[in-house]
Amino acid sequence: MWAAIAAVLFVGSAVAAPRETRIPEAAIAAAGELRESALASDLGYRITESLTTEVGPRLAGSEADARAVKWAEAKFRELGFDKVWLEPVTFPKWERRSEQAEVLGEHRQPLNLTALGGSPAGKVEGEIVRFADLAALEAAPAGSLKGKIAFIDYRMERAKDGAGYGPGGRVRSRGPSAAIRAGASAYLMRSAGTDSHRNPHTGITRFDDGLTPIPSAALAAPDADQLARLTARGPVRVRVALDCGWDGEATSHNVIGEIRGKSKPEEVVVIGGHLDSWDLGTGAIDDGAGVGLTMAAGKLIGQSKLRPARSIRVIAFANEEQGLYGGKAYALKHDAQVKQHQIGAESDFGAGRIYAYSSSAPAHAQAADKQIAEALAPLGIEHTPGKGGPGPDISPFAARGLAWARLAQDGSDYFDYHHTPDDTLDKIDPKALAQNVAAYAVFAYLAASADGDFGSEAKQVTPPEE
Amino acid sequence: MWAAIAAVLFVGSAVAAPRETRIPEAAIAAAGELRESALASDLGYRITESLTTEVGPRLAGSEADARAVKWAEAKFRELGFDKVWLEPVTFPKWERRSEQAEVLGEHRQPLNLTALGGSPAGKVEGEIVRFADLAALEAAPAGSLKGKIAFIDYRMERAKDGAGYGPGGRVRSRGPSAAIRAGASAYLMRSAGTDSHRNPHTGITRFDDGLTPIPSAALAAPDADQLARLTARGPVRVRVALDCGWDGEATSHNVIGEIRGKSKPEEVVVIGGHLDSWDLGTGAIDDGAGVGLTMAAGKLIGQSKLRPARSIRVIAFANEEQGLYGGKAYALKHDAQVKQHQIGAESDFGAGRIYAYSSSAPAHAQAADKQIAEALAPLGIEHTPGKGGPGPDISPFAARGLAWARLAQDGSDYFDYHHTPDDTLDKIDPKALAQNVAAYAVFAYLAASADGDFGSEAKQVTPPEE
């Protein structure tokens, strides 16, 4: 009641501003209970365990990906979601069959590497030319690497918020095209990762239009060290043999489960993760955890005494890894319903403790945003207005006007495992995962219970790139 | 001078005891200088870097093993050792060609494993029967595992002194024979290791006489976790395909370098490590470090102002991994020279800081042993008389009467990497390695400078097993 009066007073002092959004006190109280029951629950971990154990690795478009879709549909039903459905997502299919590399000559020895997603197959032998970073390779004159293998030996930096992945990821996405421009016949990089284990990091790469793709792969950190030491001793020839490549189209699905809202069921708060994973690990931190924790949050909201006004829509997105296909498909399909989407948040940064909350809330929703932050504070979460951006699969819809929230996970060790064989369930701390479930449940519950919106408004945009 | 008088007095009070061994004060002073110069030197690290980089993995009997022998011979010469020679060592040759495994059926997914050394090749498909430990498998009735695959899911414990490797290693050495007795068609085990990375631990296994060997392999810890979770859900069929096996005989070499003693050059203090490694990593902690740090210790002693009385013999032993072949060959060849061997110590437990010193010194050498311990104390090394035993390649000769010393390395993380692809140079802390060099140099220098012996005395023994 106080909240409503305060809102009226506030709106009264602004000119032509939308009505201020506030969250009813009863919802705040219910969210507190939800938070405590989520912290005491292992449901998020059990769902993540189920996906990573029963399905295992699930490369987009693979047979295992199809099993993952069936798993997600069945799991939503088992958890008692009110509505469960699939939305098809079609994309080019890439396959990894085998990969091998070795140093030739007097220091001959194997190298541990993995093909980058999107790499063509090929057997290449050539002298290594080492570059300290992407800029150095981009500065190599055209044709200067003819018959040679480019190697970028850039070390990605560790950061709680994953800031090192910007420059690290660019070495993966842009390095191959730079290598081709310089005339190289293959491309190697030190993995975009922060560990020193013998597990290379894969990930999608792209080739600029008009270039003929070359075999492109990432070395495990100790193998990059080794190659750096060998090249410091003199010329080094390496043989790389990748068997992988694009093979037609595949259709997978965004799998969606909904907890029906009490009074405005046609309006939704979206939370989710992505269902596909790279093939090397079992996709526990990327992104079994995101799927598991948001499914659990939805389920816990569904069984709370006081249902929120709006529906909670949990989405297990298809094929995030190779180009946000699931997120783009969702944005296209629901283009006319931006306003019915109250707000969205995707978890796709592991299962470390959430330490910060922010959102795109405009002025008229900032009081409600603060209410959410206050309800999250007991979980050790700081309010950091204005920081960050939407999760990857949310971003195409956010570009069309969806309001978004960010629940920032501590990713200090995320890039030790990301896209490697080592992305397995043992890397998840069940207590940290429960804290994530609690945070997502509180956020989604309160956003769905608010009187007023968070600023979702259709924008005119060019369609997202394919 | 004081030392000599004290020795005479002490001997005078004992009945029929050997003359007490003491170390001259001048040698103690020189050892102090040696310790400080070793701590300031990166020579041990540079030698280890050279071996692991230039040769890389060096499975006993392989082409790389032969390169390692050439490397060691050349390195001894480059370091200025007074005498360098090879002693041949012949053994059966085992090869790894490929290895694969996968869960079949509704949860189909690959498993990451590695063949145990000595395993035969074979393609086997069968239902997994999980056992908590070796005793449980040994209790399985004969024939009860017919057509099935035995899986021991024992977790080795972490310990500074590696105590967990006793029970962990037995799962590897005895598990396959127990599986065969119960009728199994293949044997899987959780790796004998303390990490949770996707890097399985290999290591030699044996099959008891009269049993027909079966394919035997170790799963990486996350894969063992996965298999345990899957078997908890119901019957699990797995396909294992190993291509590996014994292939005739090979001859490698113990490579020996000697720093000539000043007054008793025919008497020697032996230090060393083993030159071979498993094939998965580059053998940095097992045992490039042992070779590197003892070569460096020898070199530093060789360039000290005051040469010790006795010679320092540094041995890079052949084929430790598959049955102490180098150590046994050395013991056989030098059988008549036990007494000329003052004492021996092998480093084969990584490159963690040395925290304890002990030896087999009998009563008449305990004062000298204490002098060595006092000279080691500034390195943070405790004197622990009576603890431990000789290093692996020293042990066959110790069984024939060689006095031995133990410089105990902190092995808390040794079994995170031991026998895995992850045994690479980056796992070595250069400062810890320098402390190891200092400790070995001080120990060897003082033992070689002593007035009197450490108790080496030929014993009648049955020849070491082949």
UniProtKB/TrEMBL annotation, chains A, B:
Look up the record and report any one GO term of the cellular component aspect. Answer: lysosome
Q: Where is the signal peptide?
A: 1-16
User: InterPro entries of this UniProt entry?
Assistant: CPQ, Peptidase_M28
Q: Which residues cross the membrane?
A: none
Which Pfam families does its entry note? Peptidase_M28
| GO terms for biological process, alphabetical | proteolysis
Subcellular localization, as worded in the UniProt entry: Endoplasmic reticulum; Golgi apparatus; Lysosome; Secreted
Q: Which residues form the Peptidase M28 domain?
A: 254-439
Keywords noted in UniProt: Carboxypeptidase, Endoplasmic reticulum, Glycoprotein, Golgi apparatus, Hydrolase, Lysosome, Metal-binding, Metalloprotease, Protease, Secreted, Signal, Zinc, Zymogen
Molecular function (GO) terms for this protein are: carboxypeptidase activity; metal ion binding; metallodipeptidase activity
Q: The organism sits in which domain of life?
A: Bacteria
Assembly, in brief, is: Homodimer. The monomeric form is inactive while the homodimer is active.
* Protein name (Swiss-Prot/TrEMBL): Carboxypeptidase Q
Upper lineage:
Bacteria, Pseudomonadati, Pseudomonadota, Gammaproteobacteria, Lysobacterales
